[in-house]
Structures are given as C-alpha cells and as structure tokens.
Amino acid sequence: MKSSLRTPLAVLLLAGLNSAGADSNPQTFDIPAQPLHSALQKLADQAGVAVSFTEQQVAGKSAPALKGSFSPREALQRLLVGSGLHYTFNGEGSVSIKNADAGSDAATAMPAVTVVGKAAYDANDPYNPDYRLRNSSTATKTDTPVMETPFSIQVVPKQVLEDRQSVRLDKALENVSGVIPAGGVGAAYGQQNGWVIRGFVTQDYYRDGMRVPSIRIADGFRELANIQKVEVLKGPASILYGRMEPGGIVNLVTKKPLDEAYTAVAQQFGSYDFYRTTVDSTGPITDDKSLLYRVNLAYENSGSFRDFVEHERVFLAPNLRWNISDRTTLDLHLEYQRSNNATDYGFLAPNNRNRPFALANSLSLSGPNSKLDSERISFGFDWSHAFNDRWKINHRFDISYLPLSDLNPQFVPIGSRQFWEGGPACTSLSCEYYLIRYRQQQTAENYYSTVNLSGKFDTWGIKHNLLIGGDYTRINMRNTYAYSSDTPIMDVFNLDYSALVADMSNPNRISRNGQDEGWGGFYFQDQLELPYKVHILAGFRYDDATNTTWTEDLHFANPNRPLQPYTPVSNAETAVKPRFGIVWQPIKEVSVYGNYVENFGLSQGHNSNQQPLPALTAQQYEAGIKTEWFGGKLTGSLAWFEITKQNLPIPDTSPLGLLNGAMVAIGEVRSRGVELDLAGEILPGWRVIGNYAYVDARVINDSDNSGGTGNVGHRLPNVPRNAASLWNTYELQDTALRGLKFGAGVVMRDQREGDLNNGIQLPGYATVDLMASYGFKVGKTKLTTQINAYNILDKGYYESTNGALSLVPIGYGIMPGAPTTVMGMVKVEF
User: Fold this and answer.
1) Residue ranges of domains in the chain
2) 685 contacts 733 by C-beta, under 8 angstroms
3) From CA 218, how far away is CA 210, in angstroms rounded?
C-alpha cells in the first residue's frame, strides 16, 4: 500500500514558484550524505519548495552530500542523481516527484502540493527582497539568530538601501531607532558621517567588524556601493571591539563573492547635478568554483543645495575568494576611494539666541575656492579554517592609508578677533564673521589584526558556543596646519567672496600635531543554551591601551601669543570589563532578554596643563522583548536602556584652553530611554521598516574636573527626546502588474539642544519621502527603473550641530537639511 508524504519546505522561492525563473535563484545548502527520505526532509528545512513523494519511491535509496550555493532546481537534481527519480515544477506553485526507471518512459505524478511559507533568503543573494534578516554576527561575532541574542541589534538590509536609494549612510540609519545625525568634525566639513547613538556621539564606523577611525579626518562620505547590509549594535560592545562609544556601533557588512555569475550596472541622476554610476560584478573564475571574485565600482559627480559645495568621488573595491578546500577559505580585499570635495562649515549661531540666524539654507561659509582632496586605500586578507563541524579559527589583517590635502580659504565664525589677533572683541551682528585662510596636509595609517577561535560543545546537557579572540589596532596620524587671517571682520549678511583668495605665502600661524595610538585586547565569550529555551551569554575583555598626542608651533605672527613648544601628552591604561546577557523564549515567537555591560575608552584629550584626561568608563542596563509575527515574516523589538558614562570630554573654553586644544572632563552623563523597531512583511508585497525612540540624555554630575561649568541637568546636544521614522513599500501582486512598486515614508525629530550650555535649540521637524519603481525581465536580464523624491513638502529644517557651540562666543556647524530633491535610477541586472 502506498502512503503519501507531503513535505512542505520552510522557505519560498524569490517571488513565488509561479514567477518565471524563480526556481533557479541560488540558495545555500549543507546536507550530509544520508538516506534520500531524510535528505529531502533536510532540503525542506533549508530551501524553498513544496514537494510530495511516496515512501515506495524513496525506499532504500541514498542521496549524496550537498554543500554550497545552488538553485532549488539544481539542489533537487543533485539529491536525485542515480535514484531513478525526476521532478517537475508546475505552474500552480508545487513540485511533483516522478518515477522514471530505466526502460520505462512512464512517470507517476503525485498530486500537486501548494507551496507554503515565506522566503528566508541567503543574506548575500542579490535578489533578496526581505526587509528583515534573521541572523546577525555583529553582536556576538558568531552567526546567531537575532531572537537568541540578548542585545539590541538592528539590521538595515540591502533591499531597504535600494528602495530608498541610500547613497549616504545617514539615509540608511534613519531606519534604526535611537540613531541621529551628528556634527563634530564631519558636520563642520560636511564631508564625513557622524551619529548620535543612544545619546552618545561617534564618528567611527566598522567594516566587517574592523574599526575605521575618523582620526580627526574628513575624507568624504562612506561609499555604500559594496555594502550588503548595515547592522547597528546598541549599547557598549567594547568586549568584542575595543575602543568605542557606549551608545553602540555601526557595522557595514560588505558584499562577498558569489559562485553564480551576477552583474548589475546602475545609473543614478538627480537634483543639483547629481550623477552616480555603479557596477557590481561577481562570479566564479575557475570551473570548479574554487576561485571567486567580486568587484564594485562607483563614480559620483554632484553639486549641492549649498553654494559652492561640489563632490567628485571614484571608488573601487575588488574582492577575491579562494576556496582552498571544503574547510579552508581565503579572502583578499581592497578598497580605494579618491574624493575631491568642497568643505562646508554649516550655519552660524550666536550663543545669545535660542535659534540659528534666519539665513538662506544655500549660504556657504567656505566660499568658491575651498577644496579638500583625499584618498583612502585599504587592503587586507581574511582566512578561516574549520577543524571539523564544531571548531573554527579565522584571522583578519587590514592596513589603511589616507593622505589628505586641504586648501580652505573661508569665512570662519570665530566671533572674537581678540582671541586670534588681540583686536577688539566682536559683539554686534555686523562683526560676527571674519575671514581666515587655512591649509592642511595630513597623513594617517591604520593597522588592524584580529584572531578568533570559536567552537561548539556540550557539557551535561548544556550547549556551548565558545569564542576566544584578540585584536590589535595601531593608528599613526600627522598634521601640518597653516592659518592666515589678515582680512577685516565681515557682515554676515553681506559676505564679500572676492576676498577669498588662496594666497598662503605669509601665514599668521603654522603648527603641526600628531597622534600615535595602540590598542590591544583579549576577550572570552560563551553562549550557553539551557533547558526551557534559556540562552545565556557571558564574557569579559582585557584591554591594554596607549595613546600619545603632541602639538608644536612652527610660526606665530601674533607677538602676544608665544610659540607653543613640542608638547607630547601620553596616556596608558589597562582594564577588564564584563558582559552578561540572558534570553528566555517562552514560545518560538517571543524572546524576553536583559543585559549588563561595561565599557572602557582611553581618553585622547588633555587639559590646559597638558595632562591626559581620565579614562572613559560606562555601564549599561537593558531589558527588552523581541517578537515575530506571521510565521517570521514580521519582526519587532521593544527595549528599555540606561547608560551612564563617566569623564565625557568637552572643550575648555578658556583662552589658553582654546589655543592649546585643551579639554575638560564632565563628571557623569546619563542616557535612558525606550526604543521600538519593526521590520518585515505585513501582507504579500507590503514591506515595512519603522522605529520610535524616546531618549533622555543629560549631565547628572558636574565634577571638579570640568572646572565648575554648571552643566548639571543640561541635555546633551543633538539628542531629541522623541524621534521616529516609518518607511514602507507595496509591490503589486497581480501577475500582469508584478514588478510595479510604490513606497512612502516619514522621518520625525523632536527639538534638540545645539550645545552643552543648552543656549541654542534646533526646532523639531518632519519630512516625507516617496518612491516608485518598476522591474521587469527581458530574457534573462532584469531591468529596473526607479524614482525617489525626498522632503516632498519642502520642509526647512536643521539636521544637526557640531555640539560644541560653546567653544567661542559665536558657534558654527549647524547643518541645514536639504530641500525637495529628486533622484532617478536605471539598473540592469544579468
């Protein structure tokens, strides 16, 4: 007697089996050699097709091992080799196994089975349409399901980046709760990303887990052409990554080589003469697919709504993967970026007003002749070896080199000529701006290496996922500055750009400085899976950090300001910091978690006496809940957190402090709040990603180290109490209109403080974005056209400040938001 086994597989094909070619999209499989019956069941757990067969058909038959990236069609072909069985993908979204024994042309078709479930694509699949990803490695350095991770980790997948045409990282991070654009070096130049995460500013980001430090350099916005996804780990993660701010890290996961050929060419064009061309090509080099490549290219030439601000950038990122064996791989990677930019210092804001000046948002303070030329060259290797199915080692080594040249004649809102030249103080509006010429030559080198050993084992019924590792970072930076300020103070409402000339033959001041940082660490982490769906993570890190900074004046024309001699400031600290988290899954769709983490950061600042500031420390308490709906199609998380940080450095506003770049340490600041994130698919074709954050970040202890500046109770700059965003798209499901997609979203920010004195506020705002796209196939080629419109209501707003407006009587670095802009795209994939 025949019995029918109907085995629904857990994942669906790219756009449903009734879409042409969907059963040919590659996915990752790892199925050991075993009986055919159980092999097909394994396929059901890893792939995306519904299949039916009888026990008699598979009885006594075996399947070979299947490991690698294959389409569902290829996977079935390989499993059925030598079995005398064939299969059929039919038009109703089902698969039938057929008998085709030797000598017989007859085939017995089984009844069709309707496909059920939702696609869980490989994260590297270029056709992956998901708005949510199940796994992340940023929080643990192991590939752990987000539902089993006791930390807040948010992922912005490739599809979100594409739907929003996120050519800047700030646009991508709008989709993550508690992350706000920030000023500082980046905003002052208008050329470098910076963010506030849970109330704390950072300008460093991570690429595949490697820290890319700002090193006081504005070398251009991070290019996203080779970025597969953006992961944001909230809270201190210094146990795994060393030096970082306690708010969290932004980790950019790059595109990896694939063993199936794929090429995409895209042309973008938009408002203010924006043009950007990208190429993404990958595939095997050898027939056995042991050698793979991926190359990403990008060229951008664009203007801006800001006067005289233009950008030109060339980006190249080749990646070569050698699959030495089934257990050993080696990746060689390189990134080259050359940028020619105009600097942008943002708006002017006096500290005796609670709002920025009412100036046109196109007004540039840098003038027509400023430019910033830079290169960034990064290369390295990453190899891994699996000793067996449980133990694995990997090693990564990277070097980056950045030469920079900055010729920057500009109007600088110093506000007090007396500080620079001993002249009269500037108090009225008509003399709150004056001319300074500025030239910089800078080089920076960054070396990074990390080794990690991970293994899985059981003890007395408890499953362990162990990680033992270490890392070392070395940073060397050298700067030479020249300043010239021989032009009278100017009227901010009547700037004379003709005075901006690039003559630096007789500078008023020439100085140079440098920084040498070495940071090594060792860490231990164990993830335990206990009965009753309890997961525990525990670990610690030992840090050994050194840092030396120095400054020196070579020339100073002001006789009232003597030359500053070579003044090195060295600092060295060691620390051991713990990390603990727990997750309980009462049901598969719900995870309740909590964590406690400590953070350590070696201060790079010094006081006016050239003594190093005390080390930065921080502690976080966090609790939350993570959920899945609709069979995992939609995920959500709700988190409460409290972070306390000690010894936050702020500028020393005394004349001597400003002259020497000195800092003072605030005693203690605290950030606490609630975050809500949602991502996934609500209905077929309707995808959404949204977030809300309430953050209260303020000074709670103004110690003697801060010089009694009276900041207790003041809110931290650039941190809105309430911030939210929502983005969603809908792709029509009707067969005739499939590929037509519409999207809309809104970004909202509450009022923010402009400086630590809370003397300037940036008003709240809301902007609305729209998009439409249409993708269709011409043979094996997919063509997509898309248009995005940003800030369609033409809302005037301020995006961020540099957060240090109390540096001088007149603050600067208030960055205005862009008016209505439009971006189009045509992309060809094959």
Assistant:
1) 4-99, 251-829
2) yes
3) 19
* C-alpha pair distances (Å), 819 with each of 280, 764, 797: 31, 16, 9
**pTM (2 d.p.):** 0.81
Model confidence at 489, pLDDT cuts 50, 70, 90, reads: low
CB 548 within 8 A of CB 117: no
- Whether 4-99 shares its CATH topology with 251-829 is answered no
> Residue 696 gets which letter from DSSP?
E
Between β-strands 248-254 and 205-207, what pairing exists: parallel, antiparallel or unpaired? parallel
| CA angle, 811 then 813 then 817, to 5° | 130
Parallel, antiparallel, or unpaired for β 4-8 and 50-54? antiparallel
Q: What 3-state class would DSSP assign to 14? A: coil
Q: 763-786: per-residue pLDDT in tens?
A: 999 999 999 999 998 988 999 999
DSSP 95-161: EEEEE--TT-----PPPP----S-----TT-TT---S--SEESTTTSS-EEGGG-SS-EEEE-HHHH
Q: How many helices (H) and strands (E) does the chain have?
A: 9, 47
CATH class of 4-99: alpha beta
What are 566-604's pLDDT values in tens digits?
Answer: 888 888 889 999 999 999 999 989 999 999 999 888 776
At residue 40, what are phi and psi to the nearest 5 degrees? -65, -35
Per-residue H/E/C for 581-628? EEEEEEECCEEEEEEEEEEEECCCCECCCCCECCCEEEEEEEEEEEEE
Joined together, the tokens standing for residue 199 give 């109330």
Q: Which CATH class is domain 251-829?
A: mainly beta
Q: What is the SS3 string spanning 356-417?
A: CCCCCCCCCCCCCCCEEEEEEEEEEEEEEEECCCCEEEEEEEEEEEEEEEEECCEEECCCCH
Q: Strand 391-407 relative to strand 144-145: parallel, antiparallel, unpaired?
A: unpaired
For residue 546, what are its two tokens?
A: 């050194």
Please report which confidence band the pLDDT of residue 47 belongs to, taking 50, 70 and 90 as the band edges.
low
Residue 733: the pLDDT is 86
DSSP letter at 11 equals: -
138: left (phi over 0), alpha (psi -120 to 50) or beta: alpha
pLDDT digits 0-9 by tens, 83-109: 878 777 654 445 667 775 433 333 333
**What is the torsional sign of CA 422, 427, 431, 435?**
positive
Which DSSP string do the residues of 760-823 spell out, in sequence order? -EEPPEEEEEEEEEEEEEETTEEEEEEEEEESTT----EEE--S-GGGSSEEEEEEEPP-SEEE
- Phi/psi for 409 (5° steps) reads -70, 130
